[in-house]
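Researcher: We're teaching a course module on how sequence relates to structure. For the next exercise, students receive a sequence and then see the predicted structure as tokens, so they can try to spot secondary structure elements on their own. Here is the exercise chain.
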Amino acid sequence: MDGGWWPRSRELVHELGDLVDHLPAHHGRVVRAHFSPPDWDTASRGIPTATGAITATASPQDGTHLILLTLADRRTLQLLVVPPAMSPEQGEEALLAAATPGYAHSAECLLATVTDSPEHDDADHWTDDGGSWRDAASPTPQQRIDT
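Model: And here is the predicted structure for the students to work with:
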């Protein structure tokens, strides 16, 4: 994978047009897109963009969760499609993994891993919340001073 994309909805026409219009210029011009149908509620062959329409095609059995962008110089970018319904933590983790050089797992495996992991890790939080180290029967510091 060359990176990830986290669309806001499952409407391919709107989201893909926005992606193409905002793809960093150093990648070049997108001329075609190949998408995974399970990621989208609606699809269209012609996707309007600021520089003209591009052709979008799908494979009927494709469940890869990738979108392939063919550029004018014939290079292809493979982007993970992060489901819009993912939580912010899950989505950010998926984007980070997709953009990590050398990441060897499939997009489907990556999304399954992110979906199966808890939204927060208890180890990331302090265990001392300012009083959990003592039991309720112990006097507070203020009580010890006053007595």
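Model: If you want an answer key for the exercise: The beta strands are 3-5, 30-35, 46-47, 54-58, 66-71, 76-81. The chain has a mean pLDDT of 84.
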